[in-house]
Structure formats: structure tokens, C-alpha cells
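C-alpha cells please, single chain.
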Amino acid sequence: MLPPESTPELSRRARFAVLAAAFAGLVFDGIELGLMPVASLSVSKSLLGDQFTDALGGQWFAWFTASLMLGAAVGGSLLGNLGDRIGRARAMGVSIMFYSAFAGLGMFVRTCEEMLVLRFLVGLGVGGMWPNGVALVAECWPDKSRPTVSGILGAGINAGILLLSQIGRVFPITPDSWRWLFGLAAVPMVLGVIVLTSLPESPKWLASRGKDKHPAPPLRLLFQGKLLRPTLLGILLASVPLVGAWAGSKWMIPWADHVAGITTPGYKATTQQWWALGATIGSFLGAPLAATIGRRLSYTLISIGATLLTWAMFQWTAPLQPSFLPVVFAQGLVATLFFGWLPLYLPELFPIHVRATGAGVSMNIGRFATAGGVLAAGALFTWFDNDYSAIGAACSLIYALGILVILWAPKTDSRTL
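Here you go.
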């Protein structure tokens, strides 16, 4: 194994190629994540036909989301470990091919159950993209640049959701016209091929393998000895924003569709646009904020702000009211500061030989919790008599748990990779 000072570095051009490919992969990741919140009711109305009810529409939204999260949890853990075994770039290419191929097959589904299976398979690639992209960029760029490049990566997913919202505004997604959207989601296969065949690998990962090509450590190593504590902390720190977003704040889009869908079909896309615009800004600023005021203080303040703004979005305003879209924008900005914070902090918790695996397990076991939270929220949706504002407000309290979790996190502000 080469010592750190002798590890070769990529050229400036190669570093930018790595950053561009990882950013593009996360943009398309965001399109996959934002696809069902904006299309779910149209898909279920089309596939269920006369059997559709508001209650069933809410339940299928929860099931589609939970299926994607479960797939992401499995895929992120397995494909994150694959990145420690075969390289971050190749595992990232495999992840992109997974989510684009199975998303494209959504064009041909005949039942909600078929769509449910495909969303799980899409999730495998969605989950694998994040840890491999983050680890690759973190290891290819110097430490002084990491707050900036982490912010760029953090913005990638929400830039994809923003792009999807613009497409949805120009081409409204309705029960009679939604299959084209899944065909569009297959386009990233081209990027996957480019990444697999042309993208340079992390020099630090290559050096860590040594001449003898030592195999990557198994997943179970993360839950033993000195790695157990950072692994559990990483899972908790990632779970708070993930569960908060998918079990709580994402109800705003089907809520907007429910209130305005008949009279203003494009309003749900407009709602997603305002949220994604704030989210793109927020997820970019999360890493610089953490670098400026500290990892622990920034996470605490984000947790407080996300709790208050999510509750306000569901209780102080409502779709079609003048204040709704500005509050949606503010909530998107503050609640997604987490997703710029995580790409900066999670790699700092783990040594290089388990970095992609550790980041993947942290984010994607968090998605197991998210799937459970979404299913619970779906059950509560019926218990709250199909009241979107009540379920959203109740789930906003999830963000408050971050205030407690961060108390146990180590200070990593001065650590280098």
C-alpha cells in the first residue's frame, strides 16, 4: 500500500470529469426520486381505473415510496460495498445502469403491483449512486475543495427534482399521459456506459488496494470494534432527514395534486418546482455552512429550522393560497441543508478502506427506516381521515430528533481524508 504522500493525483481535467459525472449521476438520481411524488396519483388512477379512491391513492403513494426506499437501502449497502471492491467509478456506472433500465420498464406496466416491483429495482441503483459518487469525488479532490464539491454533489439530487418539475410544467402528467415520463427516465443509460468505460478511478482507492489487490472488507466489519460507533451514528444522522423528507414533507405534492389537480393540473409540478428550487440552493449551501460554523452546530440549527418550517407548511398555509409556494420554497431550502451536510461529514467518519461502504450503509440503512416511516405515515393517513395537512404536520416532528442525535457525533472539522 502506498503512503499518503506518494499517492498519485488526478489531473485537473480528470478531477472535473469525475465531478461532472458524479453530479450528472445524482441529477438523474433526483429525477428518479422525484418521479413518483409527482406522478403517483396519475399512475394509480390510470392503473386502478374505477377502483381508485382518495384513500387508495394515498396508500399507493406510500407503497411506491416505501418500495423505492427499500430498494435504495439494499442497493446502497451492497453497491456501496461493491465500490470498495471493484472501484468507485465502476460501481457508480453499475448503479446508473440499474436505475435507468428499470425506470424505463415502467412505461410498460399494467398493474400497480408491477410498478411496485420496478420501483424497488430502481431503488437498487438509486441507493448505489450516492455512496460511490460521494466517495469518488471526496478522494479525487483536495481537502480544501471538499466543502465546495460536497455542496455541488448535495445539490445534484434536488437539481434533478427541479428539472423534473420543469418538464412536468411543460408536459402535464395526467392519468391519460404519464408513460412517456418513464421512458425519459431511461436516458441516463448513456451516462452509465460512459462512466463504466471512460471515467478515471480514485487514485487513493487504487493506492489503498496495493500491489497485491487486497479484497475489500466485508460489510459486517462496520458493526464490529471501533467502526461500530461511527456506523450507528452515520445511520442515525442520515435517517433523520431521510425519514423527515419522505415520511413527512413529500406529502405536499400529492396534497397539491389533490386540492388543485382537477382545476389546475400543472399545480403539483409548480409546487415541486418551488420546493426543488429551494432544495437545490439549500443542498448546495449545507456543506459550506458546516465548514463555516462547524458540523455539529450546523446540524442542530438545520434540525430546528426543518421542524418549524415543515409544521408551518402543513398548518399555516395550504395549496392555492398565496403563502403556500413561498413556504414550500423556504422549507425546501432549510430541510435540504442536510443533504449538503451529509456528503461532507459522512466520509470523515470512516477510513478509506470502508469509506464507500460506510457512507452507503449510513445513507441506505437510513432508507430502511424511511421505508418504515413512509408505511407508518401511509397508515396514519387513513387514521387522520385522509387529511394531508394533519399527516404532514405530525411527521414534521421527525426532524426534531436530529437535535438529540447530533449530541453524540464526534467533531471532525479538522480531519483530512
